[in-house]
Design goal:
There is one protein chain. By secondary structure, the protein is mainly alpha-helical. The chain has one domain: MFS general substrate transporter like domains (Growth Hormone, Chain: A), CATH 1.20.1250. It is built from 22 helices and no strands. It has helices at residues 7-36, 38-41, 48-79, 82-100, 106-109, 112-140, 148-152, 154-176, 179-184, 189-205, 212-220, 227-234, 236-245, 247-267, 272-299, 302-318, 320-323, 329-347, 350-356, 363-380, 382-393, 395-419. The longest helix has 32 residues, at 48-79. It is globular and about 60 Å long. The two termini are 29 Å apart.
């Protein structure tokens, strides 16, 4: 974005960025806690590996809630407008996150504790299901000609911003608290802090107006009575292909963040603070990848940049065995940089590319459905599957899984390019 962009556009882009940053912050503090402390607090088991698997399974709950959230919020976003729907999704995500801070543990109330945790995790997923699609439309539908992908990069940029805030918070807590204090009550603080971030996001979004594309669509024809029905009837191919094209993005991210935290601190023996510090440094390369990819997507085409990212995902997966080892932090950091920069290539252009697949009257639903179902396929079970693959066959199988995700997304992109 240039300095000549109007103030209203700067406010819109900030609103799309801060909203997704808050949403991803909420999402990532759960992911970090699921890797570090939830196995002990909510899923005790005689086998630590089983406890870790159960914790990752609770993490996956939100991914199955996200498509439902995408349908609900997409329905109202296409019928009633982008602004009010985005406010509602942010509130649901924020309330669910703050309530996790007050949950009793398994030692206090038994099996009810993990049940309540999973219910609130479901609420997080519902909120995030309506967030990303609406935020991308808020940016893209206000973009000037030739800037759709760079404007569309602001919601994806919320991912590294939210990640830095979340893991930075955990890193600070690890530095000032003992392990016993962190396990007893320190892990609750990032969930409580979410309340302040949600209030900031709401304050920004309540000052916005509807996007020009939505207003124009409303003037041309009445809104669809059932947007998802029209989407599946008239736009089935881009819905399926768009969904599969997001798989590489999710697989890369949740292997290189959620899975790798548990694997690095437990199997490789890195201490928590060192590993989180390496992740925080590497996530900056993801932000760089997002902006570089989005800029080139405007210069050439989003599908071309996404295709290149999918191809690079293959060596990112296959290099895991050689680069992830104990007592080799430089190699570990190098792999994290490689994987997360590649993640930026397959993620950044999605903010502008997915909205381009659908007309404005069903765009909120189309973007939300493709992004969130792709999240189930590529990310929802990925930490769980990766952990199981490591236990049964070793790290090579995780790398092959990641490479396969990249090829699946590449094939989906090729079907759309052929169709066009």
């Amino acid at each position: 974005m240039t300095n000549t962009a109007p103030a209203s556009h700067r406010r819109i882009l900030f609103a799309s960025l801060v909203g997704t940053s808050v949403e991803f912050y909420d999402f990532y503090i759960y992911a970090t806690a699921a890797a570090l402390v939830f196995p002990i607090l909510f899923f005790p088991a005689t086998d630590p590996g089983l406890a870790q698997l159960a914790s990752y399974a609770s993490f996956s709950v939100a991914f199955f809630a996200r498509p439902l959230g995408g349908l609900v919020f997409g329905h109202f976003g296409d019928r009633l407008g982008r602004k009010s729907t985005l406010v509602a999704s942010l509130m649901l995500m924020g309330i669910s996150t703050v309530l996790i801070a007050f949950l009793p543990t398994y030692a206090m109330i038994g099996w009810v504790a993990p049940l309540l945790l999973c219910l609130l995790r479901f609420g997080q997923g519902l909120g995030l299901g309506g967030e990303w699609g609406g935020a991308s439309l808020l940016a893209v539908e206000n973009a000037p000609p030739g800037w759709a992908n760079r404007y569309g990069a602001f919601p994806p940029m919320g991912a590294p911003v939210g990640f830095i805030c979340a893991n930075g918070f955990f890193l600070i807590l690890g530095a000032v608290l003992t392990d016993a204090q962190f396990a007893a009550w320190g892990w609750r603080l990032p969930f409580l802090a979410s309340a302040l971030l949600v209030l900031l996001g709401l304050w920004v979004r309540l000052t916005l107006t509807e996007t020009p594309a939505f207003v124009e669509a409303q003037e041309k024809a009445p809104p669809p009575r059932v947007p998802v029905g029209e989407l599946l009837r008239d736009h089935l191919h881009p819905t399926i292909a768009g969904t599969l094209a997001t798989v590489a993005c999710f697989a890369l991210f949740y292997i290189s963040t959620v899975f790798i935290i548990g694997y690095g601190t437990k199997a490789l023996g890195y201490d928590r603070e060192t590993f989180l510090g390496l992740e925080l440094g590497a996530i900056l390369f993801m932000a760089a990848g997002i902006w570089i990819a989005s800029s080139y997507a405007d210069k050439f085409s989003a599908s071309l940049v996404l295709s290149i990212g999918c191809v690079v995902t293959v060596p990112a997966g296959l290099s895991m065995v050689g680069m992830l080892a104990p007592d080799a932090p430089v190699m570990l950091f190098g792999w994290l940089v490689f994987a997360l920069f590649t993640m930026g290539l397959v993620y950044g252009p999605l903010g502008g590319w997915l909205p381009s697949l659908f007309p404005a009257r069903v765009r909120y639903t189309g973007v939300s459905v493709t992004f969130n179902i792709g999240g189930i396929i590529g990310g929802g079970l990925t930490p769980l599957i990766a952990q199981a693959l490591v236990v049964r066959g070793g790290l090579l199988w995780v790398g092959l899984y990641l490479a396969g995700a990249g090829m699946l997304s590449l094939i989906a992109l090729m079907t759309l390019r052929k169709r066009k």
